[in-house]
Specification:
Helix 2 runs parallel beside helix 3. This protein has three domains: 85 residues, RNA polymerase II/Efflux pump adaptor protein, barrel-sandwich hybrid domain (OB fold (Dihydrolipoamide Acetyltransferase, E2P)), CATH 2.40.50.100; 37 residues, Dihydrolipoamide Transferase, CATH 4.10.320; 209 residues, Chloramphenicol acetyltransferase-like domain (Chloramphenicol Acetyltransferase). The protein is of the alpha+beta class. The protein starts with a strand and ends in a 6-residue tail after the last helix. The protein is elongated and about 80 Å long. The protein contains eight helices and 17 strands.
Amino acid sequence: MSEGAVIKWFKKEGEKIEKGEPVVEVLSDKVTYEVEAPASGIIRKIMAEEGDEVPVAETLAIITALDEELPEVEAITEPTVERVEERIVASPAAKRVAREHSVDLAQVKGTGPEGRIGEEDVRRFIEETKGARKVREAIPFTGIRKTAAERVSLSAKTAPHSTITMEVDVTNARKLREKFQVSYTDVLIKAVAEALTEYSIINSTLEKDQIKIFEDVNVGIAVATEAGLIVPVIRNADKKSLKEVASTLKELVEKARNGKLTKEELSDGTFTITNLGMFGVDVFTPIINPPETAILGVGRIVEKPVVVDKKVVVKPIMQLSLSFDHRVVDGAPAAQFLREVKEIIESSESLLV
């Protein structure tokens, strides 16, 4: 993490604050934190407005004692002001015109002192770009969405991806789902966790010149939220029962969608599952979640005719897609791992342990 975004101030300038009381909500690269006041006193000056992105270790606000003056505030605020102005130096009028015409000030060249953008600079930019494609909305590329983009870019650049697919009969898994009120994802987590204990090379990471096999089996589940894609982690999934996996997952998904996950609940994953089946997707190529070695993509369940004992019967079939880092794992052990996942799901007996 190199910077965070200020989401909400719980106090205003001039208001009293007690030590340990939440003062501001900050969005990091993964989760939202409430920052507590380090001392009691008065919120004398707020240095970063809601929506601002602030570098790590930068001052967010100044708290003073009730009767304490604020000495040399200019010297304290100068680094913050300079850093903000380095990003976009523009007059209030320029910002107003930019908002009215959906202009990204980062694309406007300022002609004022030290490159300051004035109103005329913005209007000139509007004239010069007439006829260009109109932008309906500009979505800030920050926070979780930006972090996820950086991670998948890193993964695509550094890990040579290879993907294999396999069909799985989920007849028995469907029975488990109906009998014990669990989801297919719960069944998948448990099956993957068991398979990882046997094919531990998949439960690893490549670090410099060593392949490090993890002792714990921590399965992450990709969850789509309004803020972007995040991956809460079910720790020691191999040691949990199917019901324990189901209750843990339900709690984590709810926290994820409410932005309440802790750092610990998002850390130390060793393998990831991502499911697009609910969107009608059959097969896809998921991108590995670094620094892990593999990720399992789950497609939709389709009723398909299959041959059983020389007879054609209709079975519920699910497509699984395993992407793996070919630097760490060759095709054969990857296929063996995926086959093990398939066999566990199709038998489903061991999942009740």
